[in-house]
Each structure stands twice: as C-alpha cells, then as structure tokens.
C-alpha cells in the first residue's frame, strides 16, 4: 500500500499539543474520534524499545471525554454498560464495554466517576455522545451531556513514576491502578489517573486548560531529561503484545462482549438495568462460536489495513486477523484475530496470504507477554 499525506482541517481536529509533537518529530498520524492521534515518532520499533526502558509523553487528546452529569446521570451511564456500576466509587476509573440493544459493542471507554452525579466516559473511536444523547432524550432523563475541553497527556514507561514524582510530588507514587486524584504543579491542580494504553506502567493527566497543558508538556521534557524522556504515542507492537484491544480494529459493533473476551466486565446476575441485558443472557446461554485470540506468523513483515483471512489445509476459514505487527521480541509477526470455534485449540496451524506469498502460523492465547 502507498502512503499519502493527510490533509488537516477543522473536521480532522488538531490538539493543543499538535505543534509540539511535530517539533518533537512525529512521523505518522492516525485518526481517532475525528482527531489527530500520533502513530509513530522515530520508528515503531525504536519507539517500542524506548517505551519499555524509559518514559514517554503521549498526546492522547483524541481519547475524548463524554461528560454526563445531572440527577439521572448514574442511571444513564449504567444503561449504556454491562459492567455493574452500582458499587462504583468517586475517584475510581472503570474499564467498561458499552453495549447496544442488540447486545453488540459500541465502545470500550474508561469510565471515571467524578461525583455521584458527574461522569467522564473516556472513549475509544466511535461517536458515543450521540448514542448517549439519544438514550437520554428517549428516556426523558434529567442529564446534561457534552464533550468538555479535556486533552489527555499520558506519561508512560517504567520511569514514569520518577518523572511524575518530580513534577507533582512523591505522593503521586502511591496512586493505585485505575484510581485518580488531583495533584498540584506550579499552583495549578491536575486530574491525574494511574492508567494508560500500555502495560509499561504510567499515568494520564486530564488537562482542562490548554495553555497550562502546553506549559506542562514542555515542563515534562525539561524535568524528564535525566530519565531520558521522549515524545511517544500508543505503540502498535507493545499494545498487541499486551493484548490491549482497539475498538474499530480488533472488535466493533458487529461483535458481542463475549467474543471480545470481556466476560469479566459482563455482570448479568445483578439487578442493574442496561441495554441488551436479555440478549447477553441468551448469548451466554447459547455460547459463542468465535472469539479473539492471538496468532503468531512465521514472517518478519505485515501491512494491515483490512482483515486478513486465515485458512486451514482444506481451505476452510480458521478466522480473520484484525491487527498485526512484527514483534522484535518474538522475531515473528504477532496479531489479534477472531478465531472460529473449531480452531480454538492453542497451537492450531493455519495458512495466510501476505503480498501473494503463503506463510504459516499458529493460534495462541492472549496476551503474548
Ligand atoms: N486511556 C483513556 N481513555 C481511553 C484509553 C486509555 N479511551 C480509549 C481507549 N484507551 C479505551 N480502551 C482501553 C482499553 C484497555 C484499557 C484501557 C482503555 C486498559 N486495560 C487494562 C487491561 O486490559 O489490562 C486494564 C483493564 C482492567 O482490568 O480494568 O487499561 O488508554 N483515558
């Protein structure tokens, strides 16, 4: 596939950090929630090696917030997700699949509970705000729904603790995974969560003031010199190895939460009311016929811009690869694939056509690491 430049416009939104990441050498973008999301800096592989050893600052403003507040906000948020939020607490983040009336996936946000009547849904790439507004209008809920001006900076990598402590104080080291709190830097308060789209440990700063955020971006680099800080972004290799799923790539609105391995976030036995609950009960009873698994392919390169079919020796469909990359750790191509039930056995072999050549691979469990 040839690569072309991407034309920026008001519709393809920039972020408050776009000028800065361009100064820091961003080399490719993807589009996420109609916004620029950096995809690589030096190269996928060298970004990956750096992320696993040091600390990176990521412009993930494209992880937009859908703010839902008001008297019926808890009811609306619960209506959208199959995860039971009845015991949820202020200051905690919940990874929660959003489900429609057919029991199919709409998004997989992190839901932040700011107050009993105020929530931020930190969304993946689909237009959750219209889904939420439609449900609110149809149910005559007393809620306010809008996209606040929040632009996340993620600080990811093993040295992220040291860098964050240098800016926000030693206390920040105590913040637990999927909790958030406000911390001060230069007389301004910042919403800081222990989360992020890597398994290398890290934080996310939900910045609510563009100018302060731009200063903060620069300070992270100034203070981070001693930790070898670099600009980075969600890394395809790292996220596939860790099996961090990507809505629109690995699963979408044609898949249900069981097929996407979200079983532990599907609560069917509690009293809470959510869309598609009866459908999910039936799906659970009937059982699924395909699910996301890992694949390892004997090759050193793959270009993915659509699904690729996996076949067995009789040319029957084993499944479809949805994301894949070369992994310098495994020295093979690894991927996330929707695999049909007859082939769920770990170590099932398949064939795959990559640029008109046939390669062989095996099915495996996720995550890879
Ligand atoms: N951070 C924030 N918003 C986001 C993302 C993020 N919105 C879009 C996208 N990422 C949402 N998708 C995910 C997918 C996985 C995780 C978070 C967001 C994740 N999963 C952990 C895991 O799978 O191990 C933990 C899940 C758990 O057990 O609760 O972190 O990255 N702000």
Plain-language structure description:
The structure is a single chain. The chain is an alpha+beta fold and 369 residues long. Among the domains are: 18-63 and 150-241, Probable tRNA modification gtpase trme, domain 1 (Gyrase A, domain 2), CATH 3.30.1360.120; 289-364, Beta Barrel (Elongation Factor Tu (Ef-tu), domain 3), CATH 2.40.30.110. The chain has eight helices and 21 strands. It has a six-stranded mixed β-sheet with strand order 12-13-14-11-3-15, sandwiched between helices. A six-stranded antiparallel beta barrel has the order 16-19-18-17-20-21. The model has no long low-confidence stretch (mean pLDDT 97). Residues 63, 95, 108-110, 122-124, 152, 178, 195-197, 204, 244-245 line the site of (6S)-5,6,7,8-tetrahydrofolate (THG).
């Amino acid at each position: 596939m040839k690569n072309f430049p991407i034309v920026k416009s008001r519709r393809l939104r920039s972020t408050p950090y776009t000028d800065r990441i361009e100064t820091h050498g961003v080399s490719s973008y993807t589009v996420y929630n109609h916004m620029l999301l950096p995809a690589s800096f030096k190269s996928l592989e060298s970004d990956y090696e750096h992320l696993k050893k040091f600390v990176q600052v990521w412009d993930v403003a494209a992880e937009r917030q859908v703010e839902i507040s008001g008297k019926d906000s808890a009811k609306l948020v619960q209506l959208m997700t199959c995860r039971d939020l009845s015991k949820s607490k202020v200051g905690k983040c919940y990874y929660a699949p959003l489900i429609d009336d057919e029991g199919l996936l709409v998004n997989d946000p992190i839901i932040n509970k700011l107050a009993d009547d105020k929530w931020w849904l930190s969304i993946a790439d689909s237009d959750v705000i219209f889904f939420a507004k439609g449900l609110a209008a149809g149910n005559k809920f007393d809620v306010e729904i809008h996209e606040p001006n929040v632009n996340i900076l993620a600080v990811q990598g093993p040295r992220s603790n040291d860098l964050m402590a240098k800016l926000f104080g030693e206390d920040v080291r105590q913040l637990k995974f999927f909790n958030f709190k406000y911390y001060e830097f230069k007389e301004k308060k910042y919403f800081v969560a222990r989360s992020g789209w890597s398994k290398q440990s890290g934080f996310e700063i939900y910045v609510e003031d563009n100018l302060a955020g731009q200063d903060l971006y620069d300070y992270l680099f100034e203070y981070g010199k001693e930790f070898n800080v670099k600009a980075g972004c969600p890394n395809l290799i790292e996220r596939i190895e860790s099996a961090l799923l990507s809505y629109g790539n690995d699963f979408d609105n044609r898949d249900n939460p069981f097929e996407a391995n979200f079983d532990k976030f599907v609560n069917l036995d509690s009293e809470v009311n959510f869309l598609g609950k009866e459908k999910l009960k039936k799906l659970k009873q009937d059982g699924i016929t395909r699910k996301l698994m890992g694949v390892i392919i004997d090759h050193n390169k793959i270009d993915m811009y659509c699904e690729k079919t996996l076949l067995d020796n009789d040319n029957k469909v084993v499944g479809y690869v949805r994301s894949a990359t070369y992994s310098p750790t495994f020295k093979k191509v690894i991927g996330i694939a929707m695999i049909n039930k007859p082939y769920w056995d770990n170590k099932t072999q398949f064939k795959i056509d990559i640029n008109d050549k046939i390669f062989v691979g095996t099915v495996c469990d996720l995550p890879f690491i």
